[in-house]
UniProtKB/TrEMBL annotation:
It comes from Pseudidiomarina maritima. Keywords: Chaperone. SUPFAM superfamilies: Chaperone J-domain (SSF46565), HSC20 (HSCB), C-terminal oligomerisation domain (SSF47144). The lineage of its organism: Bacteria, Pseudomonadati, Pseudomonadota, Gammaproteobacteria, Alteromonadales. Interacts with HscA and stimulates its ATPase activity. This is Co-chaperone protein HscB homolog. SMART domains: DnaJ. Pfam families: DnaJ, HSCB_C. GO terms for molecular function: ATPase activator activity; protein-folding chaperone binding.
Length: 163
């Protein structure tokens, strides 16, 4: 059973986060190991395994980047442990510009401005990713995921620098 089936949801990029959370809580109550405390060892073990699967599924589906990656995995394109380098010269130039910008940041205001700029770029790219997934443009979506992963690393670097 895949993560979407577990939550009785369509395998789609665009999900209602509140609905997902409500379904998660309902399943969590049903599958929680404490409900099987008086059961056999096998029942207890199964309850722990189901709860772990539920938690993993929830963490995957609530995060747009992980959800997109999971959808592509369901379509036969597994990006989880890949080491593919993007061959997009425009994006590679943007990476270099971001690296230079981060190296030159001197104060909190500059870091905050960079974080805002990065958030706008990430939102735009995530919107593209949604369109690509909906159109089943899997290779394009995979490249967008790779770009978003890089942007997420930049965001973490900026947050560390702000501390």
């Amino acid at each position: 059973m895949n993560h979407f089936e577990l939550f009785d949801l369509p395998a789609a990029f665009n999900l209602d986060a509140a609905d997902l959370q409500q379904r998660y809580r309902k399943l969590q109550q049903t599958l929680h190991p404490d409900r099987f405390a008086n059961g056999s060892q096998r029942d207890k073990l199964l309850a722990v395994q189901r709860t772990a699967q539920l938690n993993d599924a929830y963490q995957t589906l609530r995060n747009p980047l992980l959800r997109a990656e999971y959808i592509l995995q369901l379509r036969g394109l597994d990006l989880a442990h890949e080491q593919t380098t993007l061959q997009d010269p425009e994006f590679l130039m943007a990476q270099m510009e971001w690296r230079e910008r981060i190296a030159e940041l001197n104060d909190w205001e500059e870091i905050d401005a960079a974080l805002r700029d990065l958030a706008v770029e990430s939102r735009d790219l995530q919107s593209e990713l949604e369109q690509q997934i909906n159109a089943e443009q899997n290779e394009a979506a995979a490249n967008s995921i790779r770009k978003l992963k890089f942007m997420l690393k930049l965001e973490h670097e900026l947050e560390e620098k702000s501390e």
